[in-house]
Every structure is written in C-alpha cells, then in structure tokens.
Predict the 3D structure of the following.
Amino acid sequence: QVQLVESGGGLVQSGGSLRLSCLASARPFTTYTMAWFRQAPGKEREFVAAISGSGSITYYADSVKERFTISRDNAKNTVYLQMNSLKPEDTAVYYCASPGGWPGFARVTMRREVDYWGQGTQVTVSS
C-alpha cells in the first residue's frame, strides 16, 4: 500500500505563489508516475499535472499551463507543485495521486486511473 502525504497548502492573495509537496512511501519511487488533482467546492475532482517516474515527461491541464510546474526529487521520494500567478479560481483541495506506471497522456488525466490518493491540502486564493 502506497501512502501519500501532502503539505504546503494555505491562504494566498491573488497573484501570489505556493509550493505543494507530497511525500510518497512508494518503493521504488522512480517507477511511479505522480500527479496532482484538485477539487473545488461543488465541482468534480479535476486533473492538474502529472510527471513520469524519471521526471522526463510532464503534462498539464490547460488551465494551469505556464503558471504551475510539477517536479520530483526521487532521492527524497517527493513530488512538488509550484504554483505561481495564483487566481481565485485555483481555490480547491489539492490531492497528490499516483496511477502507478505511466498510463499515457490521455489516461493520466482520468480519476479512474488513480490507484493511490493523498488526503488533500487546502489552497485558498483571495481576490
């Protein structure tokens, strides 16, 4: 069983930045694709970004391209989400997730492909 623990959420003003972290118990970590999803109040959980096990492949939702950056430190079993130029519409609970291996660009965005979820961390962007 893989455990994912997020940290780094909080309250930030519009235009500000936050960095989320997710510590994974997965071994070997390099074989696990990692992703971030988010869920705003009253909305479905949606894909944000994903990164392959080696870090050579990254993929983003159109809504966060050019503003968010996903990265990983395999030596620390940690994946990060750097969020810049935050907007009020980015307010949501952010979940770390893993579908296991790389499932392809289409499937990596799908909730049903996720095998492991973190507990979520709240990000609130004030206007």
Remarks:
- The mean pLDDT is 97.
- The first strand starts at residue 4 and ends at 7.
